[in-house]
Design a protein that fits this description.
Layout lengths: L1 E10 L3 H12 L4 E5 L14 E2 L9 H12 L1 H5 L6 E2 L2 E5 L2 H16 L5 E4 H7 L9 E5 L3 E2 L5 H11 L3 E4 L3 E7 L2 E6 L2 E10 L5 H6 L8 E10 L9 E4 L5 E4 L5 E4 L5 E3 L4 E3 L2 H14 L8 E11 L6 E4 L6 E5 L4 H16 L29
Parallel strand pairs: 1-2, 1-12, 2-9, 5-14, 12-21
Antiparallel strand pairs: 3-8, 4-8, 5-7, 6-7, 10-11, 11-12, 13-16, 13-19, 14-15, 15-16, 17-18, 20-21
Helix pairs in contact: 1-6, 1-9, 2-9
Length: 379
């Protein structure tokens, strides 16, 4: 079955792909979003929901600032309450070495525009009374907060359908190829054709581009997130560790979400994941070291998300040199925070507009085969 030609096909319905599709459709383009599972069901929907400037790379601070404004208005724009809360965040150092690194990195982020203040241990405990006595130094950012990642797919589905985007969830791509001066995507007994293709497949982005003869050094991690039973109000801020080993927050329903990039195991081809118990225990111990009251709290469940990344850990967003009218977007740590703005920028670029901020050239890795995972830092 062959279908009418579209202006754009977006492969991958995470935050970045969905945002790109939304802005293209609102500009009048005929757009389809295809996702093999459901909108925001992979990395965009199974992360800990942290929206933070404190744990962003310096080069991403200007993008994160603009994206936080989009998060703040998402419920109003979509009509879906996504649990967004701007409650302020603290980055915690437990050793003098961590404290020194924090001073340097936070000053760089301040220079990039983040409203970050270095505070001593006493002030940190005033801002978050539940903190342990192990804190040596902290940084405070009033802009930090969180959203419920499990609700982002509902919000984007509603916005995309309102914009008349052809949303196809559960679409298993069986063939992807050039089709004249455009592209053809086959799956679920149908073939869709479009002049432009946006590949937003996250950890699977490398596989998608290889199907068209292009190469990107995409690697992946399997991040573990844990959630506790409902607890009395205990944590009032978003907490992150100075070395990126912890994210911690209490939801409005009382559960505590514990993340920070500790790894599970599994395979990308089968989308299969397993808990790595020693990593889970390490994450929980660090959470308890930060908030002693968590020692009395029971863990309810854990889950995983495949996170794609490239050697410099910065995003991909732009057109591939090898493939005219083929664009990629995604693959960065912190994509949940910056996704709405980066997707908007790519849409502006595709529409021929001058973007407010530079994109992230995906062709910067020509001749690169990738980089191994960095070793985990033990606490």
């Amino acid at each position: 079955m062959s279908e009418r030609v579209l202006d754009v096909i977006v492969l991958g319905g995470g935050i970045m792909g969905s945002t790109t599709a939304l802005h293209l459709a609102e500009a009048g383009m005929r757009v389809a979003v295809l996702d093999r599972r459901g909108l925001c069901s992979s990395a965009s929907g199974v992360n800990a929901g942290t929206l933070s400037l404190l744990n962003k790379r310096v080069g991403l601070i200007p993008y994160a600032l603009r994206s936080l404004d989009l998060w703040e208005t998402m419920a109003e724009r979509s009509g879906v309450e996504v649990g967004y809360r701007r409650i302020g965040g603290l980055s915690i150092a437990f050793t003098e070495e961590e404290a020194e690194a924090m001073r340097t990195h936070m000053e760089e982020k301040r220079q990039a525009g983040a409203p970050i203040e270095i505070v001593d241990a006493a002030r940190a405990r005033e801002l978050e009374p539940s903190l342990s006595s192990h804190v040596v130094l902290a940084s405070f950012c009033p802009f930090d907060g969180f959203a419920n990642s499990a609700l982002t797919g509902l919000a984007y589905r509603k916005m995309l359908l309102q914009a008349r985007v052809d949303v196809r969830e559960g679409f298993e791509v069986t063939a992807l190829a050039r089709d004249g001066d455009g592209f053809a995507v086959t799956g679920n007994g149908a073939t869709l054709r479009a002049r432009r293709l946006v590949m937003a497949g996250g950890a699977w982005l490398g596989t998608l581009t290889r199907n068209l003869g292009a190469s990107l050094p995409v690697r992946f991690r399997i991040n573990q997130v844990a959630v506790t039973e409902r607890c009395p109000p205990t944590i009032t801020r978003v907490l992150v560790h100075a070395l990126g080993l912890l994210t911690l927050k209490q939801s409005t329903n009382g559960t505590v979400l514990i993340g920070g990039g500790w790894q599970g195991s599994g395979t990308l081809d089968e989308s299969r994941t397993e808990v790595v118990m020693e990593n889970l225990i390490g994450n929980l111990r660090l959470a308890q070291h930060t908030i002693p009251a968590l020692a009395k709290t029971r863990l309810v469940r854990t889950w995983h998300g495949f996170e794609g990344f490239v050697p410099d850990y910065m995003p991909l967003a732009g057109e591939l040199n090898e493939l005219t009218n083929a664009f990629v977007v995604g693959c960065t740590r912190g994509g949940f925070t910056i996704g709405p703005y980066v997707g908007k920028l790519l849409a502006e670029h595709i529409l021929g507009k001058e973007t407010e901020m530079p994109l992230f050239d995906p062709n910067r890795f020509q001749g690169t085969t990738g980089a191994p995972l960095r070793p985990a830092v033990e606490f």
